Amino acid sequence: MKNSLKKYFEKLERLYLEKLNTKPTVPYFENCNLFISEPDEDDEAEWLPKEIEYIELNINKDLSNELYEFYTSYYYLHLAGMYKNIEFYFHNNMHSNDAINNIAKQEISDGQYYFKDEDCVLIGNAIKDGNDSLLVFYDNKNLNVFLYDQDFNKKIEGSFKLTEIIENLVPIF
Predict the structure, then answer these.
(1) pLDDT range class, residue 93, cuts 50, 70, 90
(2) 140 and 66 Cβ atoms separated by less than 8 Å
(3) Residue among 29, 71, 79, 33 nearest 52 (CA)
């Protein structure tokens, strides 16, 4: 997972450099050590991911190695892109251990809200064929990613491997 995230961030950095002649940017907010510039006139600031040296997730759940590494490899502010004609938007893995723990707890809770009898974690949202009501879940038991359509209350895509998605994700702004 760490290598897949690293490859994605390298592609993201190249995209911004080629198209905007900057490092990746996101809306600026206070107290974030990932920003490497001051906010511009649009309140956007450049940022770079940072590898996490050590973090212990304080959650009451066993996570697969893949999902655990997804949460504990990098701090980042943007992880989005195209994979197999689907736009994936993963939740930010903020800039502190406390934030990551809070995000993981919330995503686990959200997964249980939608799938009470399954071991699923909500990790993002997606757009496919113009449908922007899709949620991205990680099935912690079967070790795959699937999409869920909120409008029709049904799974519509499945059997993606999270590492494969991240590694092959074509970054978008």
Answers:
(1) confident
(2) no
(3) 71
